[in-house]
Amino acid sequence: MTRLLPVLSLALATMPFAAHAQQSALPTPPPPPGLENAELLPGWQRADGSRVAALEISLAPGWKTYWRTPGDAGIPPRVDFSGSRNVAAVRLHWPAPEIFTSAGMRTIGYHDGVLLPVSITPADPAKPVALKAEAMIGICDRICVPVTLRLDAELSGKGAPDPRIEQALAAEPKSVDARTHCQTEPVRDGVKVTARIDLPPAIGPEETLFELASKPVWVSEATSHREGDVLVASADFVPPEAQPFDLDLSDVRITVLSDRGPVQIKGCDD
To answer: Fewer CB within 10 Å of terminal CB in the chain, N or C?
Structure first.
């Protein structure tokens, strides 16, 4: 199997961009081509003391950025909140992505930008949260540019629900408890996983996306077919060392995109 590495057409240098929440004006010098703005939206505090914020990335028309698993030639995004204060736990939410095909390469992501909700559990809900995010993303049009974002915001007070964040949360694939049988088979540079998922068929086409939940691993485009109410899908998982490895089936995450709405299955039953 020949793999398309996620370094095709990349600019040679990472381009940093820094901003603060509540700050819409772009700093000087201007951001890299394609990036119009990036900021942390402050969101609101839930009744249980947890908070909801969001990372918003705005791109020029026609530009795109990538989902957590970017496909054949995308740039895997990395978002780090470790510099935050008064944070016990943080979770990034990913709205359902789109599939792009260009020059024979298939990538997975978002056009014109994306809003990623962030769920935060404060160490002390009575105190403000100093949220700091360092993100490394790729943005692409005819060329691809790797960008480093350094953003910060102080989250305090009750705030108010933000319809943009609520809409992005609603667009996240819904977790379903679908019976999923998986088999593995070693291949030359990794492991092939075949999943049989008890999932009623959609009216239109279905896209099946495989990934490992705990670590980034290159995954091939899935092949799939229907056997009645069973979706059968296969993909190759290829680690950095490009050789067979012990794959934990409980760590496999499968997302199915269709006209019945995006769904997500975590782990295989066997």
So the answer is: C
Q: Which two tokens stand for residue 143?
A: 């060329």
Domain boundary, last residue among 128, 155, 170: 170
**Whether 152 and 185 share a structural domain:** no
pLDDT tens, residue by residue, 188-222:
999 999 999 999 998 889 999 999 999 888 999 99
| Of the residues 170, 199, 229, the one at which a domain ends | 170
Instruction: Please give the model's pTM, rounded to 2 decimal places.
Output: 0.87
End-to-end CA distance of the chain: 27
Between CA 200 and CA 100 the distance in angstroms is 25
Contact between 264 and 213 (Cβ < 8 Å): no
pLDDT digit string (tens) for 244-261? 999 999 999 999 999 999
Same domain for 163 and 129: yes
Which are the contacts of 238, defined by CB distance < 8 A and separation ≥ 6?
Answer: 3, 189, 190, 217, 218, 219, 220
Q: How many residues does the chain have?
A: 270
CATH classification at residue 41: 2.60.40.1250
Q: Cα Rg for the chain, rounded, in angstroms?
A: 19
> Which domain covers residue 181, as residue numbers?
174-266
- Tokens matching residue 239: 């680690």
Would residue 65 count as lying in a domain? yes
